[in-house]
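Lab channel / #folding
Pinned by the channel admin:
"Please post every new chain as: sequence first, then the structure tokens as a reply. Keep commentary short and put observations after the output so the thread stays searchable."

First post following the new format, from NK:
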Amino acid sequence: MNRVTVKSFKVIGISIRTTNENEQAAIDIAALWNKFVSEGILEKIPNKVDNTIYSIYTEYESDFTKPYTTVLGCKVKNLNEIPNGMIGKSFKGGNYSKFSTKGDLTKGLIINKWMEIWKMDLERVYTADFEVFGEKAQNPNDAEIDILIAVK
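Reply from TO:
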């Protein structure tokens, strides 16, 4: 883990409101990813900065045990053109703790890392936490994903 400062950014993508209670998020976020891939959302996002995919957790009702919104999308230059069925959001950035995890995405790589993070004393601010699926995430059997957690 290391501390980083994230600059403000804008994202266009698709979203779902979910909760970690009763493992509902695992079902909802898997369905969101399925929609993202099957409907070719990546190709439909206008003004992309690049093809890096961000899975963002925001609009927390309280902490990670209560409902929140997951946004799956890409950083964009502006929010001038938001396609039907998608949303555009601006994030302020700020101080973050950055974690990297490497391994097989099909074997719980991400949720296992989150379970470690949830046990840590990080002084989280619950503004916007996110996972970064860049070039190193292309091979699902040997992916490297960064997880950034907003902190004080």
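NK: The chain has a mean pLDDT of 96.
TO: also worth noting, Helices lie at 24-38, 41-44, 109-119.
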